[in-house]
Amino acid sequence: MDDMLRLVIKQGQEIVADPVYQCKVSYYRRNKIPIASSMRPNRILDYSPVLAGLNLLSYRGDMYSIGFDVANTWGSIQYTTHLYSALQNEKLVDPHFWPDLEMAQALLPDSSFFPGGIAPKTRKKYLETFVLQMGAAGVPRGIKKGLPVSSIFVQKYLKRTEVPWTPENIHDIVSRSGFEAKGELGKGNLLMWQIDEKDQKDIEKKRALEVKGKKREEYLRPDELVQAVVMALHAEVTEMSFPWLTLHKSCWEMMKLVKEKNHQRLSQIFGSGYLNDKSQMPFVIGYIFMTTCGECPGHLRTMDLMKQAAEAVKEYVTRGSGDLCLKLFAEMGHPVQFVNEDELLENNV
C-alpha cells in the first residue's frame, strides 16, 4: 500500500513538473533563445480537456482505492463510526458533532458500517453489532466501494478493459447510478438525489423494465445519453474526491485518544496486556462496549469508559480536527453545506 501511494505521489509530481516544458526551457537557454511569457508548464492540459480529465480521473481513482483499502485494512473509519453512533444514541455527544464522519456516513450506505444497515440502539446491540463488523461470522466487514458509473470509465480508459459504447450498454451503465434526478436541468432546479440503499434494487428493476423490449432507435438521442452520463458521473464526484485517507488518519488518532483517556481503567479491568500491538487499536472500542453491558471480567457494568470516550471525541473535534476533510474538500473546489432534506426539496420546487 505504501508503494502504491508513493507511486501516485511520484506520478503527480512528474505531471506538475512537466518534463517536456523543462526540456524546452533547457534547450532555449542553451541556445540563448528568449523564452516567451506564453510558454508555461502544463499548457497542454489547458488545451486538452480530455487529457486533463483523464489525469484527474486517474488520480482520483487511485486515491479513492488507496483510501478505502487502508481504512478497511486497519478498520479505522467503520469502528470509529460504531463508537460515534453509540455516543450519539446515549446523548453523550450532540447530533452532527463530527462533520467529517457525518459526511462519510452521508456518502456511504449504512450497510458499510453496520451489518443489516441499521445502527444499534441498545447497549447489548452495540457489542453484538461491533463483533459482527469485526468478522465474528467470517472475515471482517469493510466499508463498501461505490461509484458504479465512474468505475466503468476507470476500467475502460485507465485499465484498458473492453467496454462497448453502444446506446444499450451506455443506458445500462447509467441505470446503475445510485442517484436520481429531481427537477429539470433547463430550469436551474436540478438535484441529483442519492437513492436510499433499501430502494436501490427496486429502482434498478424499474429502470430495467423501462428499457426492456425497446428498439435501438427508441433509446435516448446521443446528446441525451451523453447528458445522462455526465450527470451520473458528476453525482459521484463527491464520493470519489473525498479525502478518505485523511479521514482514516483522523479516526485512528481519535481512537488513540480514546485509549489514552481510558488506559488506566482498561488495564484494571482487562489486564495490562489488553492490546498486543497498535493494529489492535479498534479492540478498545469493543472493550468499552463490553463494560456498558456487563460482558467483561467480573461482569462489571459501567458507563464510565463510554463517558471518557465521549470526552475524547469532544476534545478531538473541538480542537479543530473534526472538519479536516471538509476543509481539504473545499480547497479542491467542493465546499460542503449540511442542510435539512425536507427544506431542500421545498426550496427547490
Give a structural overview.
- The chain has 349 residues and is mainly alpha-helical.
- Helices cover 62% and strands 2% of the residues.
- The chain contains 16 helices and 2 strands.
- It has a two-stranded antiparallel ribbon.
- Helix 13 crosses helix 14.
- The longest helix has 27 residues.
- It is globular and about 80 Å long.
- The protein starts with a helix and ends with a helix.
- The relative contact order is 0.12.
- The model has no long low-confidence stretch (mean pLDDT 87).
Structural key phrases:
single chain, 2 strands, two-stranded antiparallel sheet, mainly alpha, 349 residues
Distance between the termini: 46 Å
Strand content: under 5%
Query: Main sheet?
Result: 2 strands, antiparallel
**Unreliable residue runs:** none
| Tally of separate helices | 16
Order of helices and strands: HHHHHHHHHEEHHHHHHH
Please count the beta strands (DSSP E, at least 2 residues each).
2
Tell me, rounded to a whole number, the average pLDDT. 87
Tell me, what's the shape? Answer: globular
Gyration radius from CA atoms, angstroms: 24 Å
| Widest sheet, order of strands | 1-2
Helical fraction equals 55-70%
Write the layout of secondary structure elements.
Elements: H1 2-17, H2 19-30, H3 43-47, H4 49-74, H5 76-89, H6 99-107, H7 123-134, H8 150-157, H9 167-175, E1 179-182, E2 191-194, H10 197-211, H11 222-241, H12 244-270, H13 283-293, H14 304-321, H15 324-331, H16 341-348
Antiparallel strand pairs: 1-2
Summarize the structure.
The chain has 349 residues and is mostly helical. Helix content is 62%, strand content 2%. The protein is globular.
